[in-house]
Amino acid sequence: MAFCLAPAFLGATLRQYGFMLKGLKEVAGDLAALNLPFFLLRGDPSRELVRFVAAQGVGAVVSDFSPLRLVRDWKSAVAEGIGVSLEEVDAHNIVPCWAASPKAEYGAYTLRPKLKRLLPEFLEDFPALSRHPAGWEGTVPEIPWEELPAGLEVDTSVPEVTWLLPGERRARAALEDFLEHRLPFYGARRNDPAQDGQSNLSPYLHFGQLAPQRLALEVEDRPGQDASREAFLEELIVRRELADNYCFYQPHYDSFAGFPAWAQKTLNQHRGDKREKLYTPEELARGLTHDELWNAAQREMVHRGKMHGYLRMYWAKKILEWTDSPEEAQDLVIYLNDKYELDGRDPNGYAGIAWSIGGVHDRPWFERPVFGKIRYMSYKGCRSKFSVEAYQEKTRRENGR
User: Fold this and answer.
1) Is 103 in the same domain as 233?
2) pLDDT value of residue 300
3) In the predicted structure, residue 401 carries a pLDDT above the cut 60
4) Burial code of 255-291, b = ≥16 C-beta within 10 A, e = fewer?
């Protein structure tokens, strides 16, 4: 197995690189126990992988799927330069993205029946791995794990988190904890930020330290708890694969041009609307707004690398309300999300931001200033759904303030 460590990747910081590298170190050890080599390359993947294939006399390359433009560009360059076949598999999803649908879907309601028809074919258990009888005949360079961060071109001001530890073994332990203590109540608690109701597994899924297929199989095997299981599998399979579908078939998934026509029209019609509040990027990054709920969510993300999913929607929509244009809002939300969230630079993130600001996978709602017909979320609406005070107190305890 070979992994190419790019010195920078879509605004990732030391927080995300550290989580990934520690997971890769565990992978290298597990592969060695199976008599399999692990090569860590450093540099531009479109060049380094081509050199590696030529130097090692590789006869074919198998790569995992990603719908993101940068990764697809790297892969195209590698395919053109290696002179041997490059096969792509989709371990990122349960149903491969291109098999689930040949086009961009309007929403979960159009993708869901397609996935349900295909799940019996693809949702199968994994075969056990066996130790390789021969092993690698050549030499495998030692990997200087402790030195790798110094060679990165990333923001080192965002520290690694300590409350969630990386690696497949930690992912498995976190999965067991979720299945035992939170899955039974997931249906009732998942949208309440004041409670510990979410799985906290998205960083493991993002970095490939936990397979969505493994997670789905484990959840399906749990007896009872039908409502909670169905709610979780909807998020894990339908919503997650809908995000990949969006990024795969919509080349402008991170810009205004990727919004549906009705959303572009309504946002354009309200460009000149007066904003009651305007904040600078620095004020937003530091959580210095008049909205203490929003500030608490922002600080949770800065300190923990994870914001509650329900509040991520509210958080993004408020940035649309507090900036001069939808383009500025989208760029800023992507920047903050990818800088602080452990699972930033993920199709789920891009699709969620496009939903919040640009109506992707949504429908027109009642018209209002700034938002036009984009769905609105309010502080009062949040108060009606959960205890804002309890959530703010929870974040103060977790953040040490």
Assistant:
1) yes
2) 96
3) no
4) bbebbbeebbebbeebeeeeeeeebeeeebbebebeb
